[in-house]
């Protein structure tokens, strides 16, 4: 019984989990302009792939630190979306886990740690977001998503 073989069926695309950080400061949210094959030159929230064994909170804190050098204070789950990228060379599906967070130190400013992937970070009012938004974020906004507590 201990020598089982697991066979994984090949699919047309891949499924990945991305953790998306809605980092709030006052009435502003942190966004960066993407430099990526997915959504190049669009504005997006800090995000990254969930690693094996990682909690959503751990992934959010790690990705935010890797991308901006910022530290999370409080964090909580907001929503989950299912995003299909069918028009890409390699079709994929992303399950996006949106987390709301605040800074451990509100005086911290974001640094652009990964300039190959982001043109820079800025704070934007939710009611006046820059354009164009990365389409999964644009769809969420159009569907009424708002990371601010009501």
TrEMBL record:
<dbReference type="GO" id="GO:0005829">
    <property type="term" value="C:cytosol"/>
</dbReference>
<dbReference type="InterPro" id="IPR015797">
    <property type="entry name" value="NUDIX_hydrolase-like_dom_sf"/>
</dbReference>
<keyword id="KW-0378">Hydrolase</keyword>
<dbReference type="GO" id="GO:0006203">
    <property type="term" value="P:dGTP catabolic process"/>
</dbReference>
<dbReference type="InterPro" id="IPR020476">
    <property type="entry name" value="Nudix_hydrolase"/>
</dbReference>
<feature type="domain" description="Nudix hydrolase">
    <location>
        <begin position="14"/>
        <end position="147"/>
    </location>
</feature>
<comment type="similarity">
    <text>Belongs to the Nudix hydrolase family.</text>
</comment>
<dbReference type="InterPro" id="IPR000086">
    <property type="entry name" value="NUDIX_hydrolase_dom"/>
</dbReference>
<dbReference type="Pfam" id="PF00293">
    <property type="entry name" value="NUDIX"/>
</dbReference>
<protein>
    <submittedName>
        <fullName>Nudix hydrolase 1</fullName>
    </submittedName>
</protein>
<dbReference type="GO" id="GO:0035539">
    <property type="term" value="F:8-oxo-7,8-dihydrodeoxyguanosine triphosphate pyrophosphatase activity"/>
</dbReference>
<dbReference type="InterPro" id="IPR020084">
    <property type="entry name" value="NUDIX_hydrolase_CS"/>
</dbReference>
């Amino acid at each position: 019984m201990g020598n089982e073989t697991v066979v994984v069926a090949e699919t047309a695309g891949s499924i990945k989990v991305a953790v998306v950080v809605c980092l709030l400061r006052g009435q502003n949210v942190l966004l960066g302009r993407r430099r990526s094959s997915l959504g190049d030159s669009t504005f997006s929230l800090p995000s990254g792939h969930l690693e094996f064994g990682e909690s959503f909170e751990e992934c959010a804190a790690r990705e935010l630190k890797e991308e901006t050098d910022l530290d999370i204070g409080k964090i909580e789950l907001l929503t989950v979306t299912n995003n299909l990228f069918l028009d890409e060379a390699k079709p994929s599906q992303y399950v996006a886990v949106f987390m709301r967070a605040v800074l451990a130190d509100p005086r911290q400013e974001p640094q652009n740690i990964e300039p190959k992937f982001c043109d820079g970070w800025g704070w934007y009012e939710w009611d006046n977001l820059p354009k164009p938004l990365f389409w999964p974020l644009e769809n969420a906004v159009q569907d009424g998503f708002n990371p601010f507590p009501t």
